[in-house]
Amino acid sequence: MTLHIDTNAAPGATAFSETVRGVLDDGVLLVTIDNPPVNATGTDVRAGLLAAVTAAQSDGEVAALVITGAGKTFIGGADIRELDAPPSEPTLPSVVAAIEGSAKPVVAAVNGAALGGGLEVALACHVRVASKGARLGLPEVKLGVVPGAGGTQRLPRLAGIPAAIELIATGRTMGAEEAVERGIVDRIADEAIAQAQATARRLVGTAPRRTGALAVPAADRNAIEGAAGKALARARGQVAPGEAVRLVRAAADLSLSEGLAEERATFLRLRGSPQAAALRHVFFAERAAAKVEGLDGVTPRPVETLGIVGLGLMGAGIATAALDAGFRVIGADVTDEAAAKGRERIATLLDRAVASGKSTAAARDDRLGRLVTAGSLDPLAAADLVIEAVFDDLGVKTELFRRLDTVVRPDAMLATNTSYLNPDHIAAATRRPERVVGLHFFSPANVMRLAEVVRCARTAPDVLATSLGVARKLGKLPIVCGVTEGFIGNRVYSAYRREAEFLVEDGAAPEGIDAAMEAYGFAMGPFAVFDLAGLEIAWARRKRDAASRDRAARYVDIPDRLCEAGRFGQKTGRGWYDYREGKRKVDPDVTALITAARAAKGIVPRNIPADEIVRRLLAAMAAEGEALLNEKIAARASDIDLVMINGYGFPAHKGGPMYAAART
Questions:
Q1: At the N or C end, where does the chain have fewer CB atoms within 10 A?
Q2: Nearest alpha carbon to residue 172 among 249, 262, 234
């Protein structure tokens, strides 16, 4: 090799840059990207890859190349920080073009995640060998952009237009087996690098199979339209998915060079858009949320067995998530019959995963083999952490914790899943309140990503650190908060609900408010959500708090009148809307009730435009968020944004209520 030897690299390794090295072995140059933590395609990586491919073309000792990543990641994507800066040379498209244009065979050894630009590098290679655990995808739409280095043009040439639309416009990742089925990966190997090297040697002297030179497979028009329709329906106002659909479809009509030029222009236009800026805010907010004050140097406790008390819908969901994560689970309920029904719920959730292709029968059986259910608390003596998911009543929960205190080991931890109650009062029922923490999951708990981790007054640092680790292992995004009624999410959502009710009194119709928020990007407007969740839950809380309510504060009694009439939402066929014919309809009886309530207060209704509806609801959420920050319940404004996005349906491409308010 003609380039300099890096004294910090392994003996015989050639340094193509600080993060890219090469080792020549029997004619095959193994090019390794070593840019922790995820081997992102930053400037130095791009420069090193380009140098390696360029040098190999004129080096007689090199017959073929293999590109791989150090550690357990191939390339985890772009350096997101670069999206806020002007493009720097060499650009990823030029690197990808050099790889694809190599006269010598280039094989990708996809030894882990190949995401975004990482998959675009792999697509440019002439053959792709993946490890069994590899994950592949083009998730750029989740950052408000489209692939910018050929993803929308090369992927359709391998997988076809319908599959490429689905993968790129949703940002979904896939496993290695699916990638082989779709023609994206050529083979799976236990030792991806060794297999890739052997493959590269076999390819010496053959013409490279360049992805960009392949024809786009013909596809049924209905299949294309179906994939596009589904992707656009999920976009809910986000621009990037629609642009991704357009670019993928164009791959069939444009030459590769024309398609790449259109893709690059679209990428550069979108990266400066408000939606992309908001989604980058969300990306960095998740990283900031992982930094929790007071936990530096704190070692989490080991947790292998989770106990769950209460195997209703919430408890069964938590148990399913725990089994999916590899924990042993002990589920307890009040009777053997209730425990058996809980096991059936868990088995049903696992069966659904098999039926949908997300799991296998063998994996389901393995999970059920790690599940024990019982009609008493005694088996929980073996648990490292016990999570209660019983009825949200202070008396019920405190009595349960008193009993758990005598059952579990002294070193075991206890978590309450309460939504509104004060966990300090629950912890006080135990002899060791320092081992109690709040773990507020969202239903369905095996699906929803958010978990509020409540730091109680006496929660020990290692208990908090352990709870965060468990939540992450469950696949959740844990957000730490302090003790307050409703924590972060329900307090902000209560302000949202209250302002929506004020808007109704002031003259807006429930369906008009819902339409305004759905146009803003919410999947459902507030009143449709209230009906879905059930109006009786909030009614019970209002009745419980009636004695302490500030009589001078504005109070809307329309929801109370609905509940008094037995209108609890979808479950009873009538709530804010009428569902008796199977679909949501405006109910004249509700309109009349609202009119009467306004008249009783002397309110003259006025027309409220959609932009005012959105502005007032966003302002209400942001004001409650500011109160949470001032009270030090939330550590940072971006934590509030994450809670509302991941737990309450706030559109991610708007950045969250705090982000949106700061830019209004």
A1: C
A2: 234
Among the listed residues 490, 494, 638, 646, the single catalytic one is 490
> Could you report the per-residue pLDDT of 357-412, keeping only the tens digit for each?
889 999 999 999 999 999 999 999 999 999 999 999 999 999 999 999 999 999 99
pLDDT tens track for 31-75: 999 999 999 999 999 999 999 999 999 999 999 999 999 999 999
Question: Within 10 Å of residue 145's Cβ, how many Cβ atoms?
Answer: 27
**Structure tokens that stand for 407 in this block:** 């059952």
Q: Which of 100, 263, 452, 624 is catalytic?
A: 452
Share of the chain above pLDDT 90, in %: 93
Segment (H or E) for 20: strand 20-25
CB 438 within 8 A of CB 452: yes
| pLDDT averaged over every residue in the chain | 95
Reading the block at residue 609, the tokens are 């435009």
Q: What is the CATH number of the domain that holds 586?
A: 1.10.1040.50
| pLDDT band per the 50, 70, 90 thresholds, residue 11 | low
* CA separation for the pair 47, 57 (Å, rounded): 16
**HSE of 256 in the Cβ direction (CA atoms, 13 Å)?**
19
pLDDT tens per residue, range 561-582: 999 999 999 999 999 999 999 9
Please indicate whether residue 630 is annotated as part of the active site. Answer: no
Cα 462 vs. chain centroid, distance in angstroms?
Answer: 26
- Judged against a pLDDT cut of 50, whether residue 3 lies above it is answered with no
Residue 650 placed within a domain: no
Catalytic, 39? Answer: no
How many domains, the chain? Answer: 3
Among the listed residues 35, 102, 111, 419, the single catalytic one is 419
Which one from 126, 440, 467, 499 is the annotated catalytic residue? 440
CATH number at residue 149: 3.90.226.10
Confirm whether 360 is domain-assigned.
yes
Asked if 337 and 231 sit in the same domain, the reply is no
The pLDDT value recorded for residue 110 is 98
Q: Cβ–Cβ contacts within 10 Å for residue 489, how many?
A: 22
The reply to whether 131 belongs to the active site is no
How would you class 213 by CB atoms within 10 Å of its CB: exposed for 0-12, middle for 13-18, buried for 19 or more? exposed
One domain for residues 592 and 446: no
Q: How far apart are CA 658 and CA 641, in angstroms?
A: 6
